[in-house]
Amino acid sequence: MNTKILFRSSILFFFCMISIQAQEVLTIEEAMKIALENNFEIKIAKNNTKISETNVTIGNAGMLPTATASVVDNNSITNSTQVRQDGTSTSLDNAKNNNLTYGVSLGWTVFDGMRMFARLDQLKELQKLGDTELKRTILMKIGQVNSAYYDLVQQQQQLVALDTTIVISKQRLDLAKNRFTIGKASKLEVLNAQVDLNTDMVALLRQKESYANSKILLNQHLARDPKINFTVTDEVTVDNKLLFADLLDLAQKQNPALELQVINKRIAELELKQIKADRYPVVNLTSGYNFTESQSSLGFTSENSSRGFTYGFNASLNIFDGFNQNRNEKVAKLQIENSKIAIEQQNMILNTQLSTAFQTYLTNLELIELEDSNESIAKQNLEITLDKFRIGTITTLEFRTAQLNYVNAKVRQSNAVYQAKLSEIALKELAGNISF
């Protein structure tokens, strides 16, 4: 481009940078940190993880004894008549009777077919399930933050491209007016230049609207006030060294969706163990210390009290329950089989997603090189066309075509880089390998 355009673009860029520096410069690292602290879904997932962790206790598994304190106080007022063996009788109206019992009892299941141990292991697996759900939520939300952030970067780049084309359109309008003044151009050329400038300004306004809405969306992902103003960095760096074999190996080890299916299989196996425990006897130890006091207004004994220690055990064994035990075990085994099928299905889905995403990634890397070349060619073409337009050897239509080709090339190049970054993010999310 000629020196005058470069000078005007530099001035415009300078004032844009002053405006940007007056705002908060949000880096991708800061955005991810804010999301990890503020995002509502991540907070909920963290609390669910704490719930699962809190549930992992030997008491919740049924391994500890239970102690119960109780008080029972029964009172009555009755009209009573007692007839003795010798035929005599005694009657009393409004006879008061009282029976008070209070004490502490202790119960402990000492054997239940190993159900309590299977239950404890299941609680631990449920904790792992919560941890994996949290990991999946974090990966998904961090992926969304990355996508929204780099979308904002490429829209910011498009704003710069549109600013540049407006500078060119304004210079074209000035040239057309000068040429019309000295009689070397018609009024039509001035009007066409004005219409094209207005068109560029409309495109710029639309892009500013899109840019502002994208900021609001990113603020939503960060769970903060949508009115917070900020700017982002002006470059997107794409990792062009990803290898499919490495990604597949990582995905097999740490993809959250696959991990969830593996944990669900283990939970189903432990559920079968608990069901099989019903084939064994259940032995409970019982003990307690009780106080009993009773008062009666009629009878041979008017007052009675006792206190003391009680102990014993009880055992029970399911002998026949209408074949429900066999049915429950069959259902549990089918659940395990379903979990195995789910793991195979998730493996296939994961391989398919990785394969398609990696192919898209490779295509986008090639598109970056192609669009870089197209942008360079379009820039050279615009410089030559502008020089020819200044001396009047080409038409305004040819000039406008070159100008639009340059803007479109800039936009396509920016979009190619953005799409490649999205592919990189998708691959790392599938591999469970997004850095945060």
Can you give keywords for this protein?
elongated, 436 residues, Outer membrane efflux proteins (OEP), alpha+beta, 17% strand, porin activity, 6 strands, 65% helix, disordered N terminus
Amino-to-carboxy terminus distance: 42 Å
CATH superfamily of the domain at 3-38 and 123-280 and 324-430: Outer membrane efflux proteins (OEP)
User: What structural class should be given to the helix and strand makeup?
Assistant: alpha+beta
How many beta-strand segments? 6
From the spread of the alpha carbons, the general shape counts as elongated
Main beta sheet: 4 strands, antiparallel
Amount of helix: 55-70%
What's the total helix number? Answer: 9
- Mean model confidence by pLDDT: 89
Biggest sheet strand order reads 2-3-5-6
Q: Could you say what the CATH topology of the domain at 3-38 and 123-280 and 324-430 is called? A: Outer membrane efflux proteins (OEP)
Q: What is the level-2 CATH architecture name of the domain at 3-38 and 123-280 and 324-430?
A: Up-down Bundle
Please write the CATH class name of the domain at 3-38 and 123-280 and 324-430. Answer: Mainly Alpha
**Order of secondary-structure elements:** HEHHEEHHEHHEEHH
- Our estimate of the beta-strand percent is 15-25%
Could you tell me the radius of gyration in angstroms?
Answer: 40 Å
Uncertain residue ranges: 1-21
GO molecular function, one term: efflux transmembrane transporter activity
Protein name: Transporter
Family: Belongs to the outer membrane factor (OMF) (TC 1.B.17) family.
Subcellular location: Cell outer membrane
